[in-house]
Amino acid sequence: MQVTDYTAKKPVSSEADPAVVIQSLQSALEASRSEIAALKHQPDWFKRQLFGRKSEKRIIEHPDQLDLSALLGDAASPSEPEATEEITYHRRKPKQRSEDDVTDAGLRFGPDVPIEVIELSAPQLEGPEAGQYEVIDYKISRRLAQRPGSYVVLEYRRPVLRHKPSASLMEVPAPSAVFEGSLADVSLLAGLLVDKFCYHLPLYRQHQRLKDAGVTLSRSTLTNCVQRAIELLRPIYDAQWEHILQSRVLAMDETPIKAGRKKKGQLQATWYWPIHGEEDEICFTWSTSRGSAHIERQLEGFVGVLLSDGYAAYDRYARNRPQITQAQCWAHTRRYFERASNGDPAAGEALTLIAGLYRVEQQIRDKKLAGQKKLDYRSRHALPIADAFFAWCHQQRQRMDLVNSDPLAKAITYAENHQEQLKVYLGDPEVPIDTNHLERALRVIPMGRKNWLFCWSEVGAKHVGIIQSLLTTCRLHQVNPYPYLVDVLQRVALHPARDVEELTPRVWKERFAANPLHSDLDHAH
């Protein structure tokens, strides 16, 4: 008689130790269960991608179902942050919608929006009985209209003078342009950059729009204008990068981009590494590698806290650097448990505990706590929840039915391996709970990638990083990118090099936003 050991793939003698045979069969059974669980998880994942919710917010229908009162001590109940009104049951009041979400408030617009007045005549004021009527008031109604993208040719009529005594001729010089001899006004340069990098409109589409507007211009001219304009902005980017490195807390991530030719018919895989500073500034550094060497080069001289996800390159960078404190993102940890929730209901307990940590952060924002008060609040309310979470992870690891290949087991392993880094934010009020603020800022790269797909050259990839660093920082500081670019493109060549930091969006907002430089197009109006 032969008994097959499915793990060793060779026959086991019938005279073998029964304990060895049983252990072999158990190993084979465990491997089969693991494979079946993985196969079941795959269609669930695909269904989620096609039909499921994309939001990572956890909807808790009964927030009091998990009683955390023993863990929170004197903390407010989980329902405290959200006001309730008594009817016949408790329900959350609807959140106040932002100004952009209000759909029934009518038309609103700022003073810069042009208004064209259309006078309507009254038929009663014409004809033989017109004298019986008089206008006592006007009633105003408004509608929003749109013109196709329009372009204007600025024609400078410069007098040519003749000096009568000497019979010599002279002419009035043309106004200086951003680039000597260029046919592009600063308004066109700013418009090209904003359309391409804020609204992700590739240059070939802008070229088509120019053609539809009756303007004939080569696409290479547009490309040259964009490249020269971005290169002019490089000193501002460098100044912003130097200021970011002075932060005590940095958030860092990476996102892929195809850039440069690897071989015929194939582009090489490269990466942007966005780095977010303390004062809401971001720089997109670029590298052909995803290894820790790029992190070392970019963060040379940095001392402080580096907040990231669990990618191993950050671990390698911080491992032998005592001046670096590594913190990790709870949102990335949560995603592991969220993926495991379809296959194992126990993952819901972990998600509920993590949701408790986020409710504490919401309470901190509502109370507008900062500094020591914020730290004390986290210590009283969030630390017990975090301890309960890791105790739950340890308890789950004791389950006999939980194999290492299960999604829940992988999630628990990830959390336990990074326990120290995940708790860093509990001891430092300036460290965020996650890197979501950075992920929101880096969306410009994936959004642009869906439109322009890739960068033809490595130089082009670096240029994308420069301009997106400035435009994204503009958004973070509520600076309109178009007037910002119109101003700094004219100002940067004349501004003292030692004061170039004044042209970064953060400082420009305070120094020049109230009285920016304008294009000649504005003067023509």
| Order of SSEs | EEHHEEEEHHHEEEEHEHEHHHHHHHHHHH
What is the β-strand count? 12
Uncertain runs are 1-10, 63-67, 69-81
Overall shape: it is: globular
Q: Counting H and I runs of at least 4 residues, what is the number of helices?
A: 18
Terminal-residue CA separation? 99 Å
Pairing-aware structural class of the strands and helices? alpha+beta
**Rg to the nearest angstrom?**
31 Å
Q: Could you describe the largest sheet, including whether it forms a barrel?
A: 6 strands, mixed
Summarize the structure.
The chain is α+β, with helices and mostly antiparallel strands. Helices cover 44% and strands 12% of the residues. The protein starts with a strand and ends with a helix.
Architecture overview:
- This protein is an alpha+beta fold.
- The protein contains 18 helices and twelve strands.
- Strands 7, 8, 9, 10, 11 and 12 form a six-stranded mixed beta sheet that branches. It has a two-stranded antiparallel sheet with strand order 1-2.
- β3 (84-86) and β4 form a beta hairpin.
- α6 packs across α7, α8 packs antiparallel against α9 (347-367) and α10 (371-396) packs across α11.
- The termini are far apart.
